[in-house]
Structure formats: structure tokens, C-alpha cells
């Protein structure tokens, strides 16, 4: 039997009385408070066509298409939405209910709705692994539930209802955290987190049903798959794997698979082609169908069966933008014999990693796998010779491997055998330099601690006769702690000097180890014992089996908890959100089922402390029960915490549902579709905000509603008079990007520090004489307070960060204040892009003597106090970028040049600048998380890396061309620009500029691309420059490698001298020629007119003469007579004209007489 808890015996109920009484006597006892029913949220994923249906839930399937919502938005009429925009909707909704005790859920939800309860949902998108493809960001969107009636037939006005809201999706993210909380009205319901991840290992059948692609689902798992089966570790890439798998089912090629972090799971029989090829050279004692090792990554699953390794790639179009999913399991490392898979819990450099330990002919080698974009490639390490050959031994075997991502180093736990003894060494291998050396040799026997909690192994200590048998290693990349475990536990801060933790019994052996990466870790032994250790301390606690566990189980039996049963088996142990969980198989009669339950570590330790440190004290004439409290303080609080967004880098949008003007307030499919479209549009605008030109006053709400904001009063008027189409009112002001989140009472999970940045807060410790007694409070002196509490700081990388602690005593309140300042030392990071290649480290703040002794009651239960861990990421924080400050640049250029001439065709997105003016560029640093922006004050290098006369003819320049076009050292007459007064060093390849630079003069020399640009229209020549601005290696004020590429439009470019001279010459020649022609024309015009008249007369006369000499005589006679008469008439007319000329002044009467 491998029970997860003890049997339910009556004697255990009696043993629970003492610790139960101790809890009741605590000063913060909860029994005196009014009973509050424990309520919990319930979240289901449903498709859009299942809205309003009961008992329906769907799986998150990636290839589901997004719906077009044009028909819905077109019916809105007068509304703030853009009718030109194409609105889309997500294929899924979140359905939210809650339950409290035995009362029916329908009645509770109805009561909550009528009392004003609204669920508030915060969806957090996990940033992807491959930051080379996707932008690194911490994005959140806050929504509210929209009430919807159930479609179940009902005679009453309101029978059943639920809250619905869109389940958003974001490109590059497959892991989503859904935090559900209350709006503060109605019943008290604790906040709860759900994981709604995309399952890429499904495919759609012809009947429109989903089926798992990795195997066939087993709908009725047999109890023998889990009962009395040893537990096994859960291996995956932390916070990145959307699907988790677990093998270890004896003699079955089956795995457990979940996409909800074991809120529910399925058992799958894998479609494997079992083949024993290569087993002849593998030392396989027994062949079995059991899946021995199972590892889940962001897009791939890996399993080991016997000596063979298989992989399966999920279908994640959201990540890959294409269908790269596998159809069957793929055999990796063909012809290789693999004895073990080793996980790598963290990712780095945009990739995930996995290690396979070789056996047989490859003994002493490690197959190191790199996973990126759904593909894995293995490399055999060491590259030249095996570890055995490098250390010059005959027989050796690698039993475990650990990969340190920050150093890109492999740590190997190697077992050596010689004729006399067996020993183990920790070997370091650097794949970059191909260097291998021994770091540490474990002792042959377990040290004798002689009653100490820990022992620093120096080589001079005494030892027991129990052999030390290592089985594995674990490395925490945040705290830089290395653990070697087996029938012991060794801890090291530098991978070379180790500390032996003596609390763990040498008679037991650790089977696997789990870590929260937040300062807590747990170990599972071969006999299924659970041990707990707080990192940075040396005291280990046995959680199961223990007195505290028996007390906890007894209390759960009194409450009739369904998460516990007399017959149960632990399947695995894991951490989630800094809480320890068990996956157990409960047997109820002949039926069994899997349950995920929380292991209350703080409560178990509290039970043990109270049960073992109580005593009877005589006061007066009677005995009283008293308790010893070993916690050095009464209460611990955090003050003066900075606003979180500046350090946590969480971007948050707020988008409530549209208001329904109907008196009932219930939504329908159309209003939910509108909500879908608005949420999709918010995320679309977020993804499209990458413009290099930035306006200081450009806000998210302005980009979403554009010019509709000026009509907000009109829309409100329509809503107030119930005249909006569809009874839907969209409040534009409620959609916003949140920049002013308030600090909570806890430290953030992680903080980002730029170069020289600091994080400051205050730790407040209140001290009383007895924390567990009902006695009057005593006032201590200042020296007494200082001597009672000490705050220690443990730095994982003291060369990179520093901590400063200032103590202040407030005697009147028995309080000690510790002002803590965490500061980057500007020593361990070069420069990188925003969110790329960050260095992970951590800081642990520990109150001396608090580990395992100090607890705090909260509304979420008991938790431990006195130990604070902060994960620190050094480098360029996500969400920062460099942008071209267009407005300030145009304004400053106008002031300095006394004018500003834009292009004829004005483009508000790309203003023009005149060539002959001095160009003064200005840039600003924009913080997309906090909304702050300010002028960039550092140094930078400006390069023209491309260009062309038009946007269609833009081309990229080669590195050689970039040097010639931009370097002041160039001697090929190719420079495009230069500074007005060059301040760069003479040996600098490129000009180093700053905010105080005096400006840029455009040169466009003879061999530059902008030289001699021919205008194609009547406007002046223009050119588009593709400009790169970078501060890398020239700005030491920040870790950020800002890189900005933008287009610069320059007009009014001059022509080359030769072309200008040619144009002037041709123009002069044409002008002179025209003048000469004009003069000639003026002088020759009278002669030309006379010639023309003569020519015309001759032409007329020539056309009036006879045309032939052989005509008819009668016709000739008649024509001759006509000719004579015509001639005589012409003679008479000619004579009369002469007489008239001779008498021009004759009276009119004489003329009449003559007639």
C-alpha cells in the first residue's frame, strides 16, 4: 500500500483534541467570528452555440475559426462602433457559477444576482517561449460577467441563470490564467484561479466531435492502474506547458493528460508502434509497455518506453501560424539506447530543452535536445569523447543531468566503479568551449552531524558507516542553489562547496523532488513520505506521515470532506502558484476517482508546533493550558510598496460588457456577440500598436473609438430614452488601458530592474511577549526590540545586485521597521532588446528563527511568515520602446529653421522635411505598461539602411553600402548626411549622436543613392530614407538595446551640377532659338504676306484658264462669246473705276446724271 493519508481510526479523533484545543485558544481564533459559508467559484468553457445550456462544457481546441460578427454590428445603428471595421468573435465563452455548501447552485446564483453580485474575471496571457517570433509582454484583460438566463424550460420569471463572458485568445499564447473574484456585493466568495489552456492534441472527426490525437481515451479506468502504485514526478516546462502528462502506469502504454492542471484529466492509451529494435546492445533487464518517463513542453510531448524515446507535436496555429501538428508518435534518436530522460524546467534564448541519457554503446554521453517552434534537434555531448574517456576511467555511468540555462552549462552526476569502491562526482561540461572538469566528489559515507541541523562538508568531519547513494540533482535557476539527493540531501550555493542537511534520516531515500521556485520545496521518498524544506534554511519537516497530518485528516473527516477517503493512493506531488498539491486516487467501495487537493503545509506545521509545545501551568489554585511560541514576532506587514506595474510589467485592459436597457438586465446571444467583438477589437488594437511615429497624446481609447468620442453625450441621450438599437448601450469611457494599479499587501512574483534601478519597500515586524497567550501587551525598550528580531538578506548573485537594510524602532508600538532597498549594480548584463535574454536571479529576506514557526491567518487560510522571496530579472524590461517624436521634431525644426515646408501632398502619418534645412531629430522612450513617455536623453547611432525615390522602389542596403553612406571615415564620396558640427571621435566608424546634437545636414554626394534624383512630376525631387536608430554600445545609461527603423521623407533634393548645367544650357539654347525665330518672323512677315497673296492670285488664275483644246465647236463658240463678254465687262468696269478715281470729289448728283 502507498497511502496518501492514514486510515480513519477512532483513536486519531482523540489524538486531535489537543491541537484542536490549541487552535481554539489562539488570539485570532476563528470560532468567535460569525460563521461564513465557504463558497467557491465554478468556471466552464463553452462554445458560442452552447450558451444558456446546462451541464455542457467544451475543450479548448486551437484551430476553431473566429466568427464574423458584421451582421450583428450592422444592426446597432447609432453606436460608437465603426461600421467600416470588420469585427470578429472568439469561438468560446466562459460560463461562471458558484456554490456554497449543501444549498443548490441555481438558488445561490439567483440570490447572488439579485443582491448585485458580479464576477470579475482577469485573464492573464502567458508570454511565449520563442521571443524571436513573438513580442515579450505580460498582458492582462479584465472583464465582467454578463448575466444570461438558462434555456431550460421554466414557468417562473427567473429559474436558472449564469454569467458569461468571452474567452479571449491571443497570438503567441497558449497558457491562460483566469482569476475570478467578486465585485464586493452579495455573498463573500474567495478569489480563485483557473487554468484555461489550449489543447493542441485534439483533432476533429467527421461527426464534428473531438478526439485525442495522441491516443484513445479510456473512459472507465481500472483501479489497478493507480491503487498501490508508486507515485512519480510531474515533469514539464514551468508556466509554459499547456498540457501536462504523467506516465508510470504498470504494463500499460497509457498516460494521464490534462489541460486544466489536473482539475480534470483523461487516461489515454497511446498509439505507439512498439518495436524492440536495438535492444540487443541495450542493458535492458526487462521489456515492458510502461511509459517510464514523460515530459511536457510548450508544444511537444516526450515519453520514454524501455530504451526508446518518442515525441508528439501539438497543433498550435496560435504559436506557429501553420499546422505543424503530428499525426502519430515520432521515434526520436533512432538506433540509440536511452536509459533516462531528464527535464529542464526553465526555458532560455527562445528555446526549451530536454536531455536523454545514453546507455549501451553510447554510455557516458548525453543527447541534448533543443526545442523551438514544435521541432526538436538533438546533439551528442561531449562532442569528441565520452565523460569516461575525458576523466580517464574505464567504467562510469551518467545517472542524472542538469542544465544551467544562464551559463549554458551542463552538470552531470556520474557514477564511477573501480575494483575496490564505488563513488560519485559532479562533472561540469561547457558545450560552447567543449570543456569538461570535475566540480565535486561526494563523500563515500553519510556524515555524522552529531545533533546539528546542518554540517558544512570540509573533509575533516566524521562519517557513519551508511554509504551515500546519490540518485539525482536539482538546480534552482532563481536562487542558484544546487541539490544532490538520494538517501541524503546536499545543498550548495556555488556548485563546489556543499552543506549536509542532517534532519533527513539516512534510512530513507528520496525518490523525487519538487520545487515552487518561490522559496519552497518538497521531497517524496521511496516509501511515499513527504518532507518539506524552506530554501535558505536548514531545517527539514516531515509532513506525511506526521502528527500534524493525522490532525488535519481527522478534522477533514469531521467536515465530511470529499477530498479524503480511508483508501487512497498518491499519484504525484507538485507545486502550483506557490502551493503544494497532491493528485490522489480515492477508492469509495469498488469505485475510484482522481482528486487534486491542496496540501496545507502551514497548517500541518502549525498543528505539529502546537501539539509538541504545550504545557500545564499552575495559576492560582488551578492548572491552565499554555503554549510556547517560537516565532520572534507577532505580525509581519509590508509598507510603502511601489506601484506594481513599473516593476511587474503587467499591461492591463479593462473592458466591461455593454449595458442592456431591458428591465430584466439579461443578455442574449446578440449582446454577447457584441461583447465578443469588442474584446477581440481591444486585443487587435493592442497587437497593431507598433508605429515608429508616435504622438504623445495618442491614447488607447482614442484609437478604439476614433472620432466617435465627441458624440458620447448623444449616445447617452439615446440610451436614456431607450432608443438605442437592440437595447444595447456601449459606454466608451469604461473601455480603458489601466496605468495606475495600486500595490497589494504582498510582494510581486517577479520584478524587472533596468541598469541601476532600485526597488524600495518597508518590512514591519510587531513584537509582543507571548504571541499565543491572552496576556497584557508589554512595552519593550529600543535595545530589547533590536535584539529580538533580525532581518537577513540572501542574494543569489551578490556581484549583480545589492541590498541595503535600514532599521528603525518604534517603541510606542513595539514595532521594528526595516527599510529595504534592492539595487542593480550595473555589472552583470550588457544590452538586449526589450524582454530578451534577461538574467534571472533572486533575493530572499528572512527573519531569523521564523522558518516553520511563524504563521498568519488570512481569508485564504493559514500561511507562513518570515520568509520573502523576490525573483529579479535584470535587463531591458518588457514594454519599453524607442519611437520617433514627430510633433516635437517638426516644432523644433520650425523654430530653428524659421520655417517649415511640408510636401504638396500632406501625409499626417509621415511629414516631409526640406533638404536644404538642418534636420533636428528627436526621439522618446515610450513605456507601454505605465503610459509614461519622455525624451530619449542617451547617445545613439543613426544610419540610413535603405531608401528609394518612391515607396515602391525602396531597397535594403548592404553592410558595405551602409558603411559608405553613413560613416564619416568614408572616402568614396558616398555620404548621405553629416552632422552640422561633428562631435564623434575620429576613430568612430559612425557618428555618435545625442539629444544635444546640433542637427543633420543632408549631403547626397556623388556616389550616394540620393544623388541626382530626376523628378517625375512638376514637384521637386524627393527621396524616402529608411533610417535605423540604435543605442547599442554607445549608451551606457540603460540595459535596453533600443532599435528603431522608420521612413524619413525628404523633398527639395538638388540636381547634380552636370545635370543642372545641362538643363541650363539646353534651356538657354531653346530660349535664344525662340527669340531668334521671333525676330526673323517679325522681319519677314510683310514679304511673306506679299508672297502669299501672289501665290494665291496665281493659283486662282491658273484654276480659271481652259482645261482642254478639243471641245465641241458650239461649246467653244458659246464659251468664247462668254469670255468676250466677261472681258468687255471687266474692261468697262476697269474704265469706270479709273474714272471714279480720277474724280473722287465729284458731287453726288453729277454721278447720278452720269448713270
UniProtKB/TrEMBL annotation:
Signal peptide residues on this chain, from the entry's feature table: 1-32
Disordered: annotated segments: 1102-1155
Stretches with biased composition (Low complexity): 1104-1130
Superkingdom of origin: Eukaryota
CATSPERG C-terminal domain sequence ranges: 899-1098
UniProt entry tagged with the keyword Signal: yes
Domain CATSPERG beta-propeller: 201-642
Annotated InterPro entries: CATSPERG, CATSPERG_beta-prop, CATSPERG_C, CATSPERG_Ig-like, CATSPERG_N
Protein name: Cation channel sperm associated auxiliary subunit gamma
Organism, scientific name: Suricata suricatta (Meerkat)
